[in-house]
Structure formats: C-alpha cells, structure tokens
C-alpha cells in the first residue's frame, strides 16, 4: 500500500496506541460499565486489526480479459473506462484528515 491509504492506516494504528485503556478502566465503578468497556476495547482492537491486515493491502488488479471472455468486449470496455475514470483518493483523504485530527487529541 502506498500514498494516502497507507497514511490513514498508520495514523489509525498510532491513535490506537495512544489510548490509555488502563487509565480509563480505573475510572469505571460498576461491573456493567467494565463489561461495556471491555466490549468497546475488543471492538476497537478488531477494527484496528482489520486496518492493519485486510485494508492495508493493495487490491488485486481486475482481470479485464477474464470478463471479456464471459460478457463480451464491448460491455467490459465500457466498465473499464468508467472504472479508470473514477477518483478514489477523495474518501481516503477525508479519512486521513479525520484521523490526523484524532491523532492531535490527547486522551487523559
């Protein structure tokens, strides 16, 4: 992975390291709050793990020839042209800005 997408994953990973889970856990007084907090931490760790593994990899390139054989070249060429004209960085940049904002917030 390269570019803005890698930066999003890196910032999210760093944000996760900066959370003082133990400090927050000490503030909880009821067993129910501790259970809810444990579930929150588990969910956060799962999402962070997915960011580090599944979403940090480059997607496999589309095998346009495979689809040309099954569907026909004319329709596939239309889809290929539309696909290549899309701009994917806008969403990544929005997440990057958001995570940079979160990175600047100190918890504690």
UniProtKB/TrEMBL annotation:
Its main location: mitochondrion. It is found in: Mitochondrion inner membrane. One of its GO terms (biological process) is proton motive force-driven ATP synthesis. GO terms for molecular function: proton transmembrane transporter activity. GO terms for cellular component: mitochondrial inner membrane; proton-transporting ATP synthase complex. Keywords: CF(0), Hydrogen ion transport, Ion transport, Membrane, Mitochondrion, Mitochondrion inner membrane, Transport. Pfam families: Mt_ATP-synt_D. Gene3D superfamilies: 6.10.280.70. Belongs to the ATPase d subunit family. PANTHER family: ATP SYNTHASE SUBUNIT D, MITOCHONDRIAL. This is ATP synthase subunit d, mitochondrial. It comes from Pisum sativum.
């Amino acid at each position: 992975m390269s570019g803005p997408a890698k930066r999003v994953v890196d910032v999210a990973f760093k944000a996760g390291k900066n959370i003082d889970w133990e400090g927050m856990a000490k503030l909880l007084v009821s067993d129910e709050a501790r259970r809810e907090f444990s579930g929150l931490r588990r969910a956060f760790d799962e999402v962070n793990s997915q960011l580090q593994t599944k979403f940090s990899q480059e997607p496999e390139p589309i095998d346009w020839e495979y689809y040309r054989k099954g569907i026909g070249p004319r329709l596939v060429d239309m889809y290929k042209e539309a696909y290549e004209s899309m701009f994917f960085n806008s969403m990544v940049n929005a997440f990057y800005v958001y995570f940079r904002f979160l990175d600047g917030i100190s918890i504690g």
